[in-house]
Design goal:
The complex is a heterodimer of chains A (80) and B (222). Helices cover 35% and strands 30% of the residues of chain A. By secondary structure, chain A is an alpha+beta fold. Chain B has 222 residues and is an alpha/beta fold. The chains are: A alpha+beta (80), B alpha/beta (222).
Chain lengths: 80, 222
């Protein structure tokens, strides 16, 4: 079995109202060094098989087709 | 004039939409389920609002990948008119039938109120019942209606008249770029909008400003 972690983040230039709210909340908690926060998503995916190259190709296809909206989001795929 | 309404688990504005279409066209729309791969011959397909699949992953993301949406895309490619309202708009964007994306409201709050809309393009099959730049009233109810498109796309859709409705008189409820409330595809047969025109079609609703949209598209498609 192959385990992978897919990380989806907002593209630069896309406003992130949730990240902003978290940023302000962290400031309110006294974390004064916080410059900015961007919120994203993490997917831990388990795939059958042992072909890592194939798995990576499949995972990228999953991102393009469903896990990320490439109008507003970037993604990275990491095999664990 | 025949119409169809797409039903998906989690949608909750389907009854309002069916009532509006029935009242204005004099004929009840056929209903299509998420797993249907064939859509009967109709002139207009409507995807109503709600929270399909609980808004999981992203609003409209799961619905956009259901078999019925492939059938909708095939019909759209043949020129059949398609309209998505609220969650239906999100689904059309997620399925790539319309340009852009809808993000969490800038206020982070669910907004349920009446807004003013400017008919930014009255020269479409959907909006021909309105005057150019006419200001109408319309209710909105959503959490993710903040329209976004990259600068290039935004320039293109603005230049091509694809922005059909704009929030007017400072009533933008969600932070949408350029106050965009509704867009149409380049071919002019697929429209998506966040506000709910189906909820303003008879006096009992407190107004009839949404009526011309249905009359326009139902008449145009007859």
């Amino acid at each position: 079995m192959i385990k992978a972690r897919v990380t989806v983040t907002l593209k630069n230039g896309v406003l992130d109202p949730q990240g902003k709210a978290i940023e302000h909340a962290l400031g309110a908690l006294g974390f004064g060094d916080v410059g900015s926060v961007r919120q994203g998503k993490v997917f831990d995916v388990e795939l059958d098989g042992t072909d890592r190259a194939k798995a990576e190709t499949e995972l990228k296809a999953m991102c393009d087709k469903l896990l990320a909206n490439t109008v507003i989001e970037n993604y990275t795929v990491a095999l664990i | 004039m025949k119409s169809a309404v797409v039903l998906l688990p989690g949608l909750n504005r389907d009854r309002d939409m069916i009532a509006a279409l029935t009242k204005i066209s004099g004929q009840a729309p056929v209903t299509i389920w998420e797993t249907d791969t064939q859509i009967p011959d109709v002139n207009l397909i409507v995807i109503p609002g709600g929270f399909s699949y609980g808004d999981y992953l992203r609003c409209g993301a799961i619905a956009a990948r259901m078999p019925v949406m492939r059938a909708v895309a095939e019909k759209a490619a043949k020129g059949v008119r398609v309209m998505g309202v609220c969650n239906g708009f999100q689904i059309l964007l997620e399925s790539g039938l319309l340009p852009g994306a809808l993000m969490r409201n800038a206020s982070l709050k669910f907004v349920c109120r009446e807004v003013k809309l400017e008919v930014a393009n009255a020269n479409t099959a959907f909006t021909r019942g309105y005057r150019p730049s006419q200001i109408i009233r319309c209710p909105v109810a959503h959490h993710d209606g903040n329209f976004f498109a990259d600068p290039e796309t935004l320039k293109r859709i603005e230049g091509e008249g694809q922005v059909v409705f704009r929030y007017a008189d400072g009533t933008n409820p969600n932070g949408s770029l350029n106050d965009i409330a509704g867009v149409i595809n380049a071919e002019g047969n697929v429209l998506g909008l966040m506000p709910h025109p189906e909820n303003l079609i008879e006096a009992a609703h407190g107004g009839t400003d949404g009526r011309a949209l249905f009359e326009g598209v139902l008449g145009a498609a007859a």
